[in-house]
Amino acid sequence: MKKFIEIPVSMLGNAQEMIGKDMMLISVADGEKLNLMTASWGCMGVLWNKNVAVCFVRESRYTYELLKNQDRFTLAFFGGERRDVLSHCGRVSGRDNDKVEQLGLTSLEIDGVYAVSEAKTIIVCKKIYSDMIDPDGFVDKEIYEKAYGKGDLHRAYVCEIEKIYRRNEE
Questions:
Q1: Percent helix, percent strand, percent coil in the chain, to nearest 5
Q2: DSSP string, 30-54
Q3: How many separate domains does the chain show?
Q4: Per-residue confidence at 110, pLDDT binned at 50, 70, 90?
Q5: What percent of the chain has pLDDT over 90?
Q6: Residue 148: which domain range?
Q7: Which sign, positive or negative, has the C-alpha torsion 3, 8, 13, 15?
Q8: Does residue 32 register a pLDDT over 70?
Q9: Reduced to 3 states, what is the DSSP secondary structure of residue 125?
Q10: Contact (Cβ atoms closer than 8 angstroms) between residue 150 and residue 63
């Protein structure tokens, strides 16, 4: 794994920019097939004395089905580049499509989970908590209506950040 070096959480960077502006790929494998899903909702921080990432996946997404059966997965970041990848993985379902092949990406096994080697940063995650978004939990009902007025709720996954890898440009 010469292309990536492990870095501490303190060197990760601005999570709001990484997730909200640059977006991330949630990468989860079902056996040998890697599925990629673009996400722009999430956060990172400290919870239960652990460094965590929180991501949200709608029930309708193929990634939702895959995550039910996997305890570990990766988050991949391209640093604002490769909008083509992010756009494709946000529109095309992995149920009937091999997004990795379609996009000419390379699957990479890292610490027993999969990511794409073209990413700049890879976070290895282990699920520690998940729950469905509860409509009754919204204090601001306008937010609920905008995000879920037509249903298709998200499941929130709180994941321990096991390791972070950054592309070694040397």
A1: 25, 45, 35
A2: ETTEEEEEEE--EEEEEETTEEEEE
A3: 1
A4: very high
A5: 66
A6: 4-167
A7: positive
A8: no
A9: strand
A10: no
